[in-house]
Structures are given as C-alpha cells and as structure tokens.
Amino acid sequence: MQLNSIGGVMLDSTRKGDHQAVSLLPLSRRRFLAKTSYFGAFYAAAKLIPLPALAAQMTAGSRVSQTPIVDKGFASVRKVGEGLYATISDPSKGFQTLCNGGFLVGKDGALMIEGFGSATGATFQMDALRMVSQVPIKAALDTHYHFDHSMGNGFYAGNGIPLWAHANTPKRIVESYGAMQGADKAVALAPLEKAIKDSKTELARKHREENLGMVTNIFNIVNGTVLALPNHPIDPAKLPMKMDLGGLTAVIESYPGHSGTDIIVRVPEQSVVYTGDLLFSGLYPVCFDPQATVSGWRQTLKTFASWDKDSVFVPGHGPVCGQEGIALFRALFDDIEEQAQKMHKAGVPATEAADLYVVPEKHKNVGIFVWDFSIAPAISKLYAEWGAK
Q1: DSSP assignments along 224-264, one per residue
Q2: pLDDT over 70 at 60, yes or no
Q3: Is the CATH number 3.60.15.10 carried by domain 3-385?
Q4: Distance, CA of 10 to CA of 180 (rounded, Å)
Q5: CB 324 within 8 A of CB 278
Q6: Least confident of 305-314, 362-371, 380-389
Q7: Among the listed residues 369, 170, 165, 328, the one whose alpha carbon sits nearest the alpha carbon of residue 262
Q8: Which SS3 state, helix, strand or coil, does residue 136 take?
C-alpha cells in the first residue's frame, strides 16, 4: 500500500487498477470558479507587485517587456529575451493557469514550459506562442508534478506533443492525484476536520481551517481533470542536458528543494531562468511536499544567487524578478530558520512551533500561500533536520 500526504490527508494510491484511464468530465467554468475561490483570496491578499511596475524596478534597458503580447486577466505573456517569453498567472482573475510558465522559440522549434492547472491554461499558452511563431513544438515540460503545474497535461497528450519531466513525475502524479480521483472526500478530509476541532488556540484553528479549504479545492480540481502523464522521462543523473531549438539553446537542469521532481530551464547566453517552484517571487516558500528539503532548497538558492547579476528569473508564482527576488526569498528562509532556532532552543515542540512564526514588519507584504503548505512544514522540516521533535 502506498500512502501519500497532501495537506495532512493520507491517500491510498494502490487501491485502484488503472490510474491513467480516468474519464471524469472537466468542471464547467462556473463550477470551477465557485469551487476554487480560495486561490483568488490568496492572491488578492498577497499584494503582489503589479507587472506594469515591475519594469521600473528592474535595471535600465530591462529585457522584460512592459507590454504583454496577450493578457487574458488570469494570465499574460511577456517577452523576457530574444525568443523567450514568460506566462505570468494572476489567479485573482481566473484559475485557468494557476502557475507561471513560458515558452522558448528558436528557428527550428519551440519548448513550452508547464502543463498549468487546466487544459485551458495550456491552450492559452499555445495560442500565445502561435501569435509569435509557427515553428513546430519540439516538447513541453513540467517543472514538477504538483497539480497546478500538471493538470493541463491532457492538452499536450491530445495534440501529440512530447511531454518531458523529471523521471519520478509520472509516479508522483499517480500517487498523489490518482488516489484522489473517485475517493470519498468526506472520509479523506476527516483528519483535517478533526485537526480543526482539536486546535488548542485560535491561531492554530485558523491555520487548520485554511488548510482544509485549500485541500478541498485541490480535490475539486483533481476530480474535474483527466490525468495525463509525461511520456519523456528525464533522468536527473544525466543532467544538465541541452535542447537545440535552432539558434537558441535551452539547458535543462535539476535542483533540490520544493518537490523532489524539480526541473529548471536556463538560457545562459541571455541569463534567463525558468525556475518552476524553486522560486516563489514575493511569496513565502511552499514546503509541504514530503520530498521538500529546506537545506537543499537553500543550497539551490545559493547557486541561483551566484549566477549573472543581471539574470532574469521567471518564477513558479509571482512576478518576474532579478537577483533581488532571489535575495528576498533567501531572506525569508533565513528568518524562518532564525525564529525556529529560537523556539527549538527554548524547548518549544515542533508541533507548537509550527504555528508560532511571526511575520516581521519588513516582510508584511510578502504573501503566504496557506500556512500548512508553507510556514508550518518549513519549521517542521527544520526541526527534523536538527533531529528534534
């Protein structure tokens, strides 16, 4: 029996026969929006830097276009280099994409990045690509397996586009989301309901309620999706590897941190990096994954910080940024660890410490996705790394 945890929900992913043959109908747009309002509330509260203001923050002569080639509200696409485009999501205006992505266009072919939160999101990016080029699609790539980056994979499968991902991504999709499809939601969410009732403080109760809301949304999204798995596994032991698109070379690399399946795409000649969720721009890190590693993630960010000072980073979530975005993200990890160390030395148990982090004034405008997906697991993982309970 294979059990997997998402937001504290344990799911049996071996009880079904064929996880790849799922025939559930997609949610209608109205049902989808109604069932996923929590995402919009999060992004509204996050106070993200508006994209038009981004160019002013970056260095003079920035390669990031202030004018998008297309803007549908829920996502826009901007040029970030020669043949390089960033798809930036704004879930406060719709949930078709949910995450950021992008595409690279050479003379001979194109690479599309991310499956997004729905096939509609992947279709949007394909339509944007066709606004600038008619070259064949060489491949699409999921930066990792999480639902907001992979639920739209069916678009690629339906159009015969090779889908690349970390070799463990198909397995993780099946284990995490195949088990959700057709599961008894009330039974699966019962532990989260109990956690709310058992909360010893109002703060803890608030965090558990947020967690229940998010996990419920994930159930709804997954159960409205036909799962499609990547069919071109990338062996991380054989990375880095280069993809020649014709006058444009993409370098595919793997780093630890967010999910255990993290892949990035770099164009070193232009100092542009598509990071997936190894970078949340203007947001606290999301560390809930069982294979997330705080120490590994911090080492990855140290590597990012060593790259060109004029690098442009397309994050998994939040606005495009430069090295200042990496510096902020590292500072967030520093602050979480500093507070966790103080609590650890004071003898505060990990279960209590997970709720006691205080956002400092200097980070008051930094968004927190959901506490039990972000701050709480980061502290728990730090305690575990220290051998503490």
Answers
A1: TS-----SEEE-GGG-SEEEE-SS-EEEEEE--SSSS--EE
A2: no
A3: yes
A4: 10
A5: no
A6: 380-389
A7: 165
A8: coil
Is the distance from CB of 116 to CB of 95 less than 8 angstroms?
Answer: no
End-to-end Cα distance, the chain: 27
The model carries a pTM of 0.89
Residue type, 348: V
Q: How far apart are CA 237 and CA 35, in angstroms?
A: 40
Residue 132: CB partners within 8 Å, gap ≥ 6?
69, 85, 105
CA–CA separation, 75 vs 201, rounded Å?
38
How many CA atoms within 13 Å lie on the side-chain side of 61? 2
Interatomic CA distance for residues 314 and 54, integer angstroms: 12
Contact status, residue 193 vs residue 212, Cβ threshold 8 Å: yes
pLDDT tens per residue across span 15-55 = 333 323 222 333 344 433 334 445 554 554 443 433 334 43
Q: What residue segments make up the domains of the chain, in order of their start?
A: 3-385
Residue 379's H or E segment, with its range, is helix 375-385
- The 10 Å Cβ neighbour count of residue 246 is 14
Tokens representing residue 161 in the block = 């586009």
Is residue 4 within 8 A of residue 11, CB to CB? The reply is yes
Q: Can you tell me the distance from the alpha carbon of 332 to that of 182, in angstroms, rounded to the nearest whole number?
A: 38
- For residues 371 and 211, the answer to whether their CB atoms sit within 8 Å is yes
In angstroms, the CA 266 to CA 193 distance is 42
Q: In angstroms, how far is CA 117 from the centroid of its own chain? A: 10
CA angle 167, 255, 83 (to 5 degrees): 85
DSSP 121: H
Cβ–Cβ < 8 Å for 178, 3: no
Both structure tokens of 369: 């996705």
Residues 6+ apart with CB under 8 A from 83: 104, 105, 106, 245, 247, 248
Give burial (CB, 10 Å; 0-12/13-18/19+) of 1: exposed
